[in-house]
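One-letter codes give the sequence; each number marks local geometry. A record appears below:


***
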Amino acid sequence: MAAGFDLDEDQQAILAAADQYARERLAPLAKRMDDEEWWPDEAFRALGPAGYLGVTAPVELSGAGLDLFASGLVCQALSRWNYAMALSWVAHENLCMNNLLRNGTPEQVERYVPGLCDGSLIGCLGLTEPGAGSDALGSMATTAVRDGDDYIVNGRKLYITNGPVADICLLYVKTDKARGAHGISALVVDMHAPGVRVAQKMIKMGFRGSQTAELAFDDCRVPAANVIGKENEGVQCVMSGLDLERAMISPICVGMAERALELSVAHAKERKQFGEPIGNFQMIQSRLAEMAALVETMKVYNYYALASMNDLPPGEGGRGEVHKVAAISVLYAADSLNKVLDHAAQIHGGVAYIWETEINRLYRGIKLLEIGAGTTEIRKMIIAQELLKG
């Protein structure tokens, strides 16, 4: 990326192309997805042939052969027009595909990544459990017990994005209870296998079209060949993946904030009160100015975070400067989006309180971004702990 965090010509082209695709193909789906919790399976899988799945995967694996930064730009564009689809894209593209790409054996990568790139497979990640949220590792209760050439998996995973629609799941399990967080392994699980079921599909306040579920694993047999990395060393995959996830949640915030600002400027020009556009009033202008300042600073730090992680080696992350940068990125982006959406709702007035409006749909999305991938409080803890290590 160029000095000053300006996008170069190639990056501008990636962002513009993804924006046009999302505006034309995904924006028309957003209202129905929100109204009905509807999943547009065909449209999601079509992202593969369009070049928007497998962004970071090599061309020989049906990917685009680009970097994490480019992936973030695609996410930013998708989020402007259909943030529910963008969240499902992140779960598939980053949490599942990119984790497999970074941590799988050549055989595992060859088996799964091409399908995740061309859209024939949809992926999800299974980490959070009913009894474990912020302490996802220490409180993990889902187990995998070795039985010959298989593991037998039992347990529940909760709030799993893409859970109801996924073909494969990158699942974290306890393989050695005595070792706590250091007894965790990562497995690739076929979501159509015996012993796997969607225990419940969850109805949400925001991101409604992005499918979310509680998954149940009851004596599910998973081949030992599906272990990602080594047994009991899944924590490295988790922590590295969480930093990348946080870096990729930030573009969702940026895209949503950009759209909220665009809608607010248009509304301020069109809406008339006291015989003139409300954009003529200084208090409305003040809110628009604050929104613009927040959007621009969100973009700058988000781009910095993405650039910082472009060459993050497999197994790295979960500590040090990159851990701090990822946490700052999503903390600032989500907090700023909250402020942007509050300004936007106030500018729109009663319109923002009506469920079916786009600004209302955007507003309902903020809380997940302050909770998912580690809550605001967890993000602050990470930042403070890294500062105090010095």
Observations:
- The beta strands are 123-126, 143-147, 150-161, 168-174, 184-190, 196-201, 212-223, 227-228, 272-273, 276-277.
